Amino acid sequence: MPTLSVNTQFGRLDVTAQDDAITKLVWASAVDSVEDGLGDGETTPLLQEAAAQLRAYDKGQLHVFDLPLKVLGSAFQRAVCDAMLAIPYGDTCTYGDIAKALDHPAQAVGGACGGNPIPIIIPCHRVMGAGGKLTGFSGAGGVETKVALLIHESAGGLLI
User: Fold this and answer.
1) pLDDT-above-70 percentage for the chain
2) Residue 75: exposed, middle, or buried by beta-carbon count in 10 A (0-12, 13-18, 19+)?
3) Which terminal residue of the chain has fewer beta carbons within 10 Å of its beta carbon, N or C?
4) Tens digit of pLDDT for each residue in 113-127?
5) Residues 81, 93, 113, 124: which is the catalytic one?
6) Known catalytic residue: 124?
7) Per-chain mean pLDDT for the chain
8) Are 85 and 122 in contact (CB under 8 A)?
9) Distance CA 143, CA 90 (A)
10) Cα separation, 20 vs 18, whole angstroms
11) What whole-number distance in Å separates Cα of residue 41 and Cα of residue 13?
């Protein structure tokens, strides 16, 4: 599958597309000064657009991604990702908020958030524990990366 690497302040990100949609974003194993480039396979116009939007987000110039996404997973996983997509830039909500909206346990929502295949673009970093408590993050760097993303979005004041 076509994959493109993008250097950001949050690490080197590998974005993958399949069937004209973004399906995956993962942190590359090493961050270095190498220019953005191909991961596995060939680049596509969609991956080039995803890279441009990730760079604009990284610079604070983009608040809402406008990319076709395809979440490969259960209907519940897709519903949780849709709920995360609805959280505005700079805001947060809790696992309990999403759980209540979807009529599922908060623990199940937490598992689906942790299994988010397209972090940053689908903003799982905006989901907090009960009472706004800072919780884990599945991306490279764990909670420190989650905090960096929230501070980047000026949501960091919610952590204090």
Assistant:
1) 89
2) exposed
3) C
4) 999 999 999 999 999
5) 124
6) yes
7) 89
8) yes
9) 17
10) 6
11) 15
What pLDDT band is residue 31 in, cutting at 50, 70 and 90? very low
Token representation of residue 85: 């997509």
Instruction: Answer for the pair 13, 53: CB distance below 8 angstroms, yes or no.
Output: no
Encoding tokens for residue 69?
Answer: 């996404």
Residue 93 contacts by C-beta under 8 Å, 6 or more apart in sequence? Answer: 87, 126, 127, 128
Secondary structure in 3-state letters for the chain: CCEEEEEECCEEEEEEEECCEEEEEEECCCCCCCCCEECCCCCCHHHHHHHHHHHHHHCCCCCCCCCCECCCCCHHHHHHHHHHHCCCCCCCEEHHHHHHHHCCCHHHHHHHHHCCCCECCECHHHEECHHHCCCCCCCCCCHHHHHHHHHHCCCHHHHC
CB 136 within 8 A of CB 144: no
The reported pTM is 0.90
Terminal-residue alpha carbon distance, the chain? 41
Q: Which residues in 128-160 are b (16+ Cβ under 10 Å) and which e?
A: beeeeeebebbbbeeeebbbbbbebbebeeeee
